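Sample pair:
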Amino acid sequence: MWHALTYPVKMIFCFSCSHKHTAMDISRASTEEKESLCRKYFIGGFFLLPWLWIINAIWFMPYTSESRKIKNMVIGSTIGALIFMAGIIAWAVIFQLNFSSWGSIGDKLAVVIAKGAP
């Protein structure tokens, strides 16, 4: 059974609330544990959670020299996040430029309906 604290944790001091909190310290984990966590984040990104790919790419970038699997998943996470962001930006640009010509569908997709002609 998987437990929430299977990875090494350390206590950190929070300056905003003056309490100690736990933080995950991935550098103390074994290579197998890093690969497992990296794989979970990589797979999670395919479920329309691109922020997991971004976290995966940033968090595991220093450990790419330890394992080829980690390196491949970090590269894949970076590419996946960039493709997803490009898609979102493309959709936003296309929508903003063309929603008024789409008639009632454009109005239904719009959160705020613009008044008047552009």
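The chain has a mean pLDDT of 82.
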